[in-house]
User: Which sequence fits this backbone?
């Protein structure tokens, strides 16, 4: 079962919750840090890096001898990654390329060749007790985050595990869509603030468009009744868990500790939560 | 004789220079041969997520300008303009007509490199 942990808003406790869910079930799951623009799970999991793979993308290279400077490739690029610089010919901005292949296809003289170019890397870590986790990292200055996320999700070392816990990037753009696509279940982590609600609505719209089953976890709850509860009741969205605002969690986080170290009783709850999701997904395949 | 381009939100020589290059609304052009001003739109990248500076640089080249007088120029636009041997001069937000005089009197500083960071990184 693939479970993606996501949220519209950043800083709601997505990674905090995803790590706790993983650590409570590390005997049967692998953790995938797909927040490739700022991966941070390795700061908390403290594993030993045993393997590093390069993620490559096909990026155009222009043969100036064959190029007739017609400019069709520049016009075809939707990502503004190409420019026609007079006599200097076509310039390629690798870091803006999304590897769509349009320029190579449209070039009438065959002057463009696709060349494998590194855009990121994947680290595979061993953890105490035999568990593993993967962390994707986009190269600084590059924009092709989805390519790195896809490579993490498809990495061969994830195959032996029953459950994949996918820590998604914040927001609801391409990176979010790539992270949650193909998941059996999405958990949206939010907080009871107007911003939390606003961005939760965007994330809900996203997962509903993708037709993925989902539920909500509310973090940093201060009062029994709050605006997320009201919204979820209206929309008939299930709240899986509410975590109370607790200064000790923030203090532990700042030292690189995890939620379970502050709330050890949560382990059993998260164990059951995963098993419940398993039953639910199994019942509605 | 070159064509000189000025990024601006306005349409003529009385308009003030727009300090933005990539997202400038228009380019006011001065043709040194005919001594006349004209304007071209630079709206192709209003909605672009990335590469607005590159597109603006392309627009400068497509209009045969060989001098750009701009408040700022980022690294990618600089690479395009430099490759095409467009000269870039930095200036303040003053009326274009005054900047043209400054340029003709050699008062503007020629750019040797980009003066801003890319907006992507």
Assistant:
């Amino acid at each position: 079962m693939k479970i993606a942990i996501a949220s519209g808003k950043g800083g709601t406790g997505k990674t905090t919750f995803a790590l706790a869910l993983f650590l409570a079930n590390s005997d049967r799951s692998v953790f995938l840090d797909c927040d490739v623009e700022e991966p941070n799970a390795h700061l908390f999991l403290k594993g030993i890096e045993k393997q590093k793979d390069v993620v490559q993308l096909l990026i155009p290279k222009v043969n100036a001898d064959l190029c007739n400077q017609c400019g069709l490739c520049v016009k075809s690029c939707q990502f503004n990654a190409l420019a026609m610089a007079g006599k200097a010919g076509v310039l390629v901005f690798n870091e803006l390329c999304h590897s769509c292949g349009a320029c190579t296809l449209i070039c009438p003289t065959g002057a463009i060749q696709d060349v494998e170019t590194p855009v990121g890397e994947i680290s595979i870590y061993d953890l105490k007790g035999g568990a593993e986790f993967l962390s994707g990292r986009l190269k600084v200055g590059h924009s092709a985050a989805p390519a790195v996320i896809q490579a993490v999700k498809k990495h061969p070392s994830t195959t032996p595990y029953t459950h994949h816990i996918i820590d998604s990037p914040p927001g609801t753009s391409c990176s979010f869509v790539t992270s949650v696509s193909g998941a059996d279940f999405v958990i949206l982590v939010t907080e009871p603030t107007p911003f939390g609600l606003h961005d939760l609505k965007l994330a809900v719209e996203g997962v509903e468009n993708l037709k993925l089953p989902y539920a909500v976890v509310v973090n940093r709850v201060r009062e029994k009744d709050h605006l997320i509860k009201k919204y979820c009741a209206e929309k008939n969205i299930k709240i899986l868990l509410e975590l109370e605002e607790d200064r000790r969690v923030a203090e532990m986080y700042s030292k690189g500790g995890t939620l379970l170290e502050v709330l050890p009783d949560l382990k059993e709850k998260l164990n059951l939560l995963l098993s419940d999701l398993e039953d639910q997904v199994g019942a509605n395949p | 004789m070159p064509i000189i381009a000025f990024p601006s939100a306005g349409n003529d020589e009385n308009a003030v220079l727009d300090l933005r290059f990539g997202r400038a609304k228009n380019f006011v052009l001065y043709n040194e041969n005919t001594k006349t001003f004209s304007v071209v739109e630079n709206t192709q990248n209003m909605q672009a997520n990335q590469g607005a500076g590159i597109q603006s640089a392309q627009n400068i080249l497509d209009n045969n300008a060989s001098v750009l007088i701009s408040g700022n120029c980022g690294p990618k636009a600089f690479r395009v303009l430099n490759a095409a041997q467009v000269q870039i001069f930095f200036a303040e937000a003053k009326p274009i007509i005054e900047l043209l005089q400054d340029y003709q009197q050699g008062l503007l500083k020629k750019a040797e490199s980009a003066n801003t960071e890319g907006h992507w990184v």
Q: What stands out?
A: The two ends of chain A are 10 Å apart (CA to CA).
